[in-house]
Design brief:
The chain has about 120 residues and is an alpha+beta fold. The protein has one domain. The chain has 4 helices and 6 strands. Strands 1-2-3-4-6-5 form a 6-stranded antiparallel sheet, with helices on one face. A hairpin with a 5-residue loop joins strand 1 and strand 2. It starts with a helix and ends with a helix. The model has no long low-confidence stretch (mean pLDDT about 95).
């Protein structure tokens, strides 16, 4: 699942010790992928979940992410290198089996947003 999201993006993935993956461009993290029991969580920086109005990808509280500690905690909360908190969205594993699933449009919208952050 994570590999499919990386392939759809133009970001460079870099795995972190806590198990999440930074999606970077020019050495700066714009998004993250966190493990989830059923799929992955896509995190975009400086975002309000309500802005997107997503119907298929539910939000996930950032404090529940496995990588919510250390310097990454500040990135997620918007106090380190960002101006406001990040938003996290659950990408269910069922998307992996269906390349035409409407959820991919929402993933693409989040990745597009992340390019500008």
């Amino acid at each position: 699942m994570a590999a499919q999201i990386v392939t759809r993006s133009t970001f460079e993935p870099k795995a972190q010790k806590s198990g999440y993956v930074n999606l970077s461009r020019s050495g700066r993290a714009h998004a993250q992928l966190h493990p989830h029991s059923y799929g992955v969580v896509l995190v975009v920086r400086e975002s309000d979940p309500a802005t997107f109005g997503l119907a298929l990808l539910p939000t996930v509280p950032i404090h529940s992410l496995r990588g919510y500690r250390g310097s990454n905690k500040g990135w997620l909360e918007g106090t380190r290198g960002t101006k406001q908190p990040a938003a996290a969205f659950h990408v269910p594993a069922e998307l992996a089996a269906d390349a035409d699933h409407d959820g991919w449009k929402e993933v693409d919208a989040l990745l597009s947003y992340a390019l500008n952050k």
